[in-house]
Amino acid sequence: MSIAFAALVIFLIVLLVKVSKVVEEANRTVKLVSSDVDVLLHQADG
User: What angle (nearest 5°) sits at the alpha carbon of residue 35, between those of residues 37 and 27?
Assistant: First the structure.
């Protein structure tokens, strides 16, 4: 029982680490895209 519980805890920790990395990548991508859109809008205005 305790071994299964420990395995579950480790699995959840690994899952959380992976999710946080994916979220960081997504945030970085959104920032890049939004900055590109800003540049395009400024070019369109100019």
Answer: 115
